[in-house]
Structure formats: C-alpha cells, structure tokens
Amino acid sequence: MERWAEQELHGWGRHPRLPAEVARPERRREVRAALADRGGKPLLAHGLGRSYGDAALIDGGRVVLTRRLDKMLDFDPITGWVRVEAGVTLKALIETFLPRGFWPPVVAGTWFVTVGGAIASDIHGKNHHADGTFADHVRRVEILTASGEIVTCDAETEPELFWATVGGMGLTGVILAADVKLRPVHNAYFEVESLRVANLDHFFEVSADSAHFTHTVTWLDSLATGDAMGRGIFMRGRHAEPGAEPTGGALAKLAAKLSPLLDVPLDLPDWLMNSFTMRLFNEGFYHKHPKGVVRGVQHFAPYFFPLDFIRNWNRGYGSRGLLQYQLVVPRDPEHRVIREILGAVSGAGMPSFLTVFKEFGDSTHPWLSFPRPGVTLALDFPNMGSGVHHLFDRLDGLVADAGGRVYLTKDARLPRETFRRMYPDWTEWRAARDRWDPDHVFQSALGQRLGLSGD
Ligand SMILES: Cc1cc2nc3c(=O)[nH]c(=O)nc-3n(C[C@H](O)[C@H](O)[C@H](O)COP(=O)(O)OP(=O)(O)OC[C@H]3O[C@@H](n4cnc5c(N)ncnc54)[C@H](O)[C@@H]3O)c2cc1C
Description:
Layout: E1 5-10, E2 17-23, H1 28-36, E3 43-46, E4 62-65, E5 72-75, E6 81-85, H2 90-97, E7 102-103, H3 115-120, H4 128-131, E8 138-144, E9 150-153, H5 159-165, E10 174-181, E11 183-184, E12 189-197, H6 200-209, E13 215-220, E14 232-239, H7 249-257, E15 262-263, H8 275-288, E16 294-299, H9 300-304, E17 310-311, E18 322-329, H10 336-347, E19 355-360, E20 374-382, H11 386-401, E21 405-406, H12 416-422, H13 426-436, H14 445-450
Parallel strand pairs: 2-4, 3-4, 15-17
Antiparallel strand pairs: 1-2, 5-6, 6-10, 7-11, 8-9, 8-10, 12-14, 12-16, 13-14, 13-19, 18-20, 18-21, 19-20
Helix pairs in contact: 5-13, 10-11
The structure holds flavin-adenine dinucleotide (FAD).
Flavin-adenine dinucleotide binds next to strand 3, helix 3 and strand 10.
C-alpha cells in the first residue's frame, strides 16, 4: 500500500471541501495497517463520495478510500446471496449479475454507490414501501473495529455492532465485506406507468392505489401553491415480465443503449440555476406530461439512474455547490405538516430544481437509520448564501416539531441540538458505539458537528 497522500475531499454537493490524508488499500490487511499507522489521527472510510455533505470527510484526519476493495468473493446462483468487498459498487453488481438474472435488492438514484456506503447510510430506494432498506437484505457484515479486530455481525450475530453500523455513517469502523441478497429478475426492463397528480390530496390517493407496484416515486413542482400545491408526476413500476421489450420510440431505445456518457466538464455559471430557469423546469416537466396514464417498458438505466446520464451534473449548480435537504415526516390526516413545508419552500421564492416525494413503508431500523413511516421529500438548492440556510432552519423546526428527521447522508449543516431532537435514540447509538470504539478512533466532520464523536 502506498503511504498517506494529501488530498482535498468533498461530497456530491461539493460543499464543504476538507483536507485529509488518504490511502487506497486493495487488501484488508492494508486497511488494518492503515488503522495501525494512523499516527493518532481520526480515521474514516470513504466510498465514492456520493453522500452530499460532510459524512465522508474528516478535517485533517486520515481517510481510507475503499474503491479498490472491489472483489466479488462468492455467489450462490440458487439463492442470490453474493459476498462482496465493501468497495464493490451497485454498478458492478448490476453489470455482473444482471446477465445472470439478478438485481440488487435496493438501489439509490445513482449506481455510483459502494456496498459499504449503502450499509453505512442504510440507503433506501423507490421500493422502500415494498422491500425496506439495503440493510434488510444484508448479512455477515465484516467490520474492522477500532481495536483492530475484524468482527462479523448481522441482525443475529453481534446485533449491537450491526445496528450501530447500519446508518452509522462510518463511525463504528471500516466495513470490509458483506453478503447481499440479490433478487431474481427476468430481464433489464421495467414496466412503468406515469401520471400527473394535481395536488397533495391527489398524490396520496394515487399513492394508496399504487401499493401493488413495487416501485413508486414522484417528481414534484416545488413552486406550485394553493390548490396546485403538491402537483407532480407520479411514477410507478415493477420489474418486467419475461419477453418484455422497451417501448417509447427511438429516443427511449437510444437512451437504453447509452452508457452514462454526457459530461459537465466545468462548473456552470452560478446564474444558470437561478429561480427563473428553475421555475421553467419545474412547470415544464409537469405540463409536458400528457393527461392520463402513460404506460411503457423502460430499460433500467433511464428509469433508475436518469441523473447518471449526465456525469458530474453536480457541477451544474455552480462553484459554490449544492445543498440537498431530505426529510421524512409522519403522515397526518390533513397532510398539514407537508403543506406547511411546501408552503415554506414556495414562500421562500427559492425553487428546488429536483424535488422528489415518496411515501415510505413501515420498515425501520434502530438509531441513526433514516427511513421512518411517513412521507419523504428531497429538495436540491444551489448553495446561494443565507437565503437557503434560513429556509433550512425553518424546515428544521417544522420537521422536528412533527417528529420527523433529515437524512444525514444528504446533510452538510444540521445543528447539533436539532439533530438530537430528530434522532432521540442517538444516545443509545452512542452507548453502543462507545463499547466498540471508546476512544472515537472513527470520526467524521458530520460526526463532530452533530456531537457523535470527538467530544
Ligand atoms: C444522485 C444521487 C442520488 C441518490 N439517491 C439516493 C437514494 O435514492 N436513496 C438513498 O438512500 N441515498 C441516495 N443517495 C445517497 C447515497 O446513496 C449515499 O450517500 C451513499 O452512502 C453513498 O455511497 P458512497 O459509496 O459514495 O459513500 P460515501 O459518500 O463515500 O460515504 C457515505 C458514508 O458511508 C461511510 N462509508 C462508506 N464506505 C464505508 C465502509 N466501507 N465502511 C464504513 N463506512 C463507510 C462514510 O464514512 C460516510 O459516512 C444519492 C446520492 C446521489 C449523489
């Protein structure tokens, strides 16, 4: 393994950017050596850096880049269980196992996510209501703990370490490998329906009627107000039956063949993502969708990973980067909380470029894992100074008062006290972590900010 090299790291939001000393181990003994050789500095694992804020960063600490821990170790074609090193990506899982008739149980909105990152953030997908989170499909997670011991854990064996690691944002150790249960599929296609939802009430009606679809998600017009508040395009789907062929004309077929090719090579000018262009985008996608239900069969890539078609699209938010705010709040009968939240967003006059809305199912995991029953909303904003921070502060209050929480893997600025209100079980997580890492060897900028480590 080469020695530590200095590097500035950032997450997908490109804010903040923090210096670290990084190593790129290829073998688990090199990860152990990195732990032993950390010179008293805090250590942290870093996958593909698709967390948005400071979860995978540690100012002046030592960072283990896991992407070369990318070996597939074992596969059972009868059951679909695959054992992989933690740096294996969703992309590699799909490219390797889809030709064999298998698909990862849960995928994010990008396939540039490592298995280690998927467990540490306990990621969810469009199928949360049907299949839960990534950790629902994982066993035998091997973790290099602070003592230097490699511990194998899951919901049955060493469950405390397992649940502290699921959603634990890298603060319990370095995940080295895990068993993931892939699901059998017939082909690379997805049966999809999309329809306009006119407002929030309509959204909840359609969502209730769509429980038999394994995957649902809605793109919302975050600027719509009054009777139109909550309007958007509801998309629902399921893996296609045998013999399905993509529909939708030449463009869809071309999209299916394209690998993610386009690139945003330089920062786009900051003015590009202004409220005028975002208003056009928000209204445009709603009005462009035909009335009625549009049915089709799509290749998985444009369905699951549309943003991956434009590499480095985060640069489109300009030099100051982007901030995402993803929240979940429990459902209330009048949808009062989500109305207040959408009202705060539209009232702030700061349109979110991509606004994603979905009902979570009942699957929850202890402590720091994000999903809870209710509705989740993800908003993207260019990092345009104090306005967006004031809006986030206001949203924090609404979310915490409602018993909701924000997703730590998307966060770059949540205040410590608000975090503690949103994640009231954090003390139990800390007690578990302290048993495995009493000296807080594993730290991150997010952990320090939220008071999870370093105190
Ligand atoms: C376009 C886009 C769409 C997304 N869509 C979704 C979505 O639909 N659902 C969702 O849940 N998330 C989504 N995400 C977030 C993403 O799935 C998570 O942030 C994920 O953790 C990123 O994986 P990574 O390998 O890049 O990890 P990183 O960003 O590098 O790290 C994330 C956290 O995991 C820890 N970590 C990484 N590897 C290890 C390891 N081997 N051992 C221990 N800890 C480790 C890090 O310390 C850090 O705390 C999206 C992100 C992007 C950019």
